[in-house]
Amino acid sequence: MNLLSSQADISRKCFENSHLVHIHSEKSWKSPSSCLWSSKAEITGKVIVNKQYGQCQQKKALKAFFVDCLKVSEPSLEILVEELKSVAKPVVGGLLSIKDAGSAAGVVEKAKMLIKAINSMPLDREVLIGKKLRSESIFPVKLKNVKVLKGTADYFSITDRQKYHEAFKNEAWILDFSLEEVHELRPFLRWLNLEDRYLSRRVIENSTFGGIDETCSDGLTQDLRFRAKALFRYVSERIAKFVYS
Amino acid sequence: VFVPTPDTGSFAWSKPEACLWDAPPYMQSKVPLEARYSSTSNKSIPAGFFQEILQIKNMTWKELIDELKLLRTLRDRVYFEDIKDIYLRLNSMRLEDPGISAEIK
């Protein structure tokens, strides 16, 4: 041990060697290195301590003690990515529906939490590439009521229009995140080069007439009006640009 | 050293080395002498005698670490509030003296 160690350094070593962090809910004692102060997703083998030490009156001082002195922190991007990869392992290759196994649904939910947690970190492209995340089966997808994890080699789409989602949710594998969630996950999806999987980029709309005689449809009329307006605006803008340039 | 016990009115005898002067009342690895005296008597405590003549020291962070080590062996017979208090004391001691302590081997 260094002769000139500070009190904080020695305390940390004592805590580490003698497991002096008390986990009240488990009635157990842990070393600081197996603790996290807080985490948006659970990490295997780590106890999150702010649930018991970050909720009381003295939470500010306790946080200072755990984070500054014992170096108990939040999980790094690397830890989250590793956890996501290890969570994905048991489900790869197997089609497990919610009905078949509650654990499969649990795994998919855990992957979703981890992806959200990763997305909330400052994303470091080097880490994501270095950890080969793109080649792992870590993407929670859903078809009807079946949820599995798939990789980028598999075919799946991403919801970015509710209308398309409704049309295809029973036909194709779609990333199991809502429209709002996909919006939040944009940084993550961009870093992993998944933007070409947005439904809006994949769906081609064709207008056909399948009716026999003329029946007035308010919905279709509304739709046609909307498109005509958009088309008109687009064309007039192009003409204006052309004229003024 | 005569050590009174609060509430029960009983007492014990202890060696000066096994006592600390200023220490939290819940302490078990050493006898928190001032807390024991002040909780049992309203009369003035002979602090000078204990601290200067008998050389009973105030608690430092090292005794708090020892206390945690002891509590760890007691399994579920521990009070969460006491442990929290020890962590808080360790934190404020760390902040009061963030410098270097050279006496450690």
Mean pLDDT of chain B: 84
| Residue windows where pLDDT falls under 50 for at least 5 positions of chain B | 100-105
Helix content range of chain A:
40-55%
Mean pLDDT of chain A: 85
Protein chains sharing the most extensive interface: A-B, 27 and 28 residues
With strands numbered from the N-terminus, the spatial order across the biggest sheet of chain A is: 6-5-7
* Spatial extent as radius of gyration of chain B: 15 Å
Structural class of the helices, strands and pairings of chain A? mainly alpha
The number of helical segments of chain A is 11
Count of beta strands of chain B: 4
Flag low-confidence runs of chain A.
96-100
Taking Cα atoms only, what radius of gyration of chain A do you get, to the nearest Å? Answer: 26 Å
**How do the strands line up in the largest sheet of chain B?**
1-2
Give me the strand/helix succession of chain A.
HEEEEHHHHHEEHEHHHH
Largest sheet of chain A, described in full? 3 strands, antiparallel
Q: Which oligomeric state applies? A: heterodimer
How would you describe what is shown here?
The complex is a heterodimer of chains A (245) and B (105). By secondary structure, chain A is mostly helical. Helices cover 46% and strands 9% of the residues of chain A. Chain A is built from eleven helices and seven strands. In chain A, helix 4 (77-88) packs antiparallel against helix 5. Mean pLDDT of chain A is 85; it is low at 96-100. Chain B contains four helices and four strands, in the order E-E-E-E-H-H-H-H. In chain B, 43% of the residues lie in helices and 10% in strands. The radius of gyration of chain B is 15 Å and the shape is globular. Mean pLDDT of chain B is 84; it is low at 100-105. Chain A binds chain B through residues 1, 3-8, 10-11, 14, 18-20, 22, 24, 27, 29, 52-53, 56, 58, 61-62, 64-66, 69, and chain B through 61, 65, 68-69, 71-72, 75-76, 78, 80, 83-84, 87-88, 90-95, 97-102, 104-105.
